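Much of what follows relies on a compact textual record of a protein's fold. A record is reproduced here so that you can trace the correspondence yourselves:

. . .
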Amino acid sequence: MRYSPDGQILAASCAFGLLFWDVDTGHLLQKITGYSDVVQSVIYSPDGRTLVSLDDVLRFWDIETQKLLRTLTPKSSVRSIAYSPDGQTLACGTRDNTILLWNVSRWQHITTLEGHTNGVSSVVFSPDGQTLASGSWSRYNSICLWDVHTGELLKTFVEETSGILTLVFSPDGKMLASGGDDGAIRFWSIANGELLKTVETEADTIDSVAYSPDGKTLVSTDNHGDNAIRFWDVDTGKLLKTIATETGAYRVVYSPDGRTLASGGSGEVSVWDAATGKRLKTFTGHIEDGVNSVAFSPDGKTLVSGGRDSTVILWDLTQ
């Protein structure tokens, strides 16, 4: 908090903006805000020209100019977002048990997908863009597969599981990996919805999962308490190695070439050598703990992070 030089105005900063009060009357004179809530997710468009960030609204940013292009405020509270591989469609999972599909070239709402009985926690497109997978906090119809073009519900995975927190397609599109609030990682067949294998961990929840580009390895982060990133063999389900982190890892993602991975923890972002587990870079800039989302640009030269401090930061990986 700071007074103006003449003592007439008091200014205060918080995570969501700047506030200015008249000292004599106590009236709020002005509010300057950017993000109005925690940044939950950040994703690049497939061509790398646009960044989408999610707090209480969807914000589309031009990467080159860093200007805000557009904001979308759906009636339903959005909790997860995903770009289609062709960059034309944005899927939004909501707390109202629905998925909203938007055409981002025309800024038009295409359709609403209904079928979940609880909030949609995760959405992800198949590599060919034909199918959308969605995960829910529900224990029963927790994963659904949708035809992107018709909006038809193709399949519901009927195995009783935990609520889903994270989903990812294998690079070949034949499998889906899920992490939930029971600490287990599950691998599913896209063809028939069959549960192929379950990897039990000592964690209470699996916060994020990511496939290596070659599809042989799955990395995960969890709340086990040892602040680690774990590498799993997809074929056998065996733990290959563990990377210990000092500040935790809430989210993890592979670089496009698979040589490195990035994680977001308590107030910092780390880049790791995927083969050796060696920390290559550490970026500090978020002022509060909790980096909720990290994403590589399609060319692998830039990393973006979004955090609980209501900021989105772009990091240069070329230096």
In short: The CA atoms of residues 4 and 264 lie 37 Å apart.
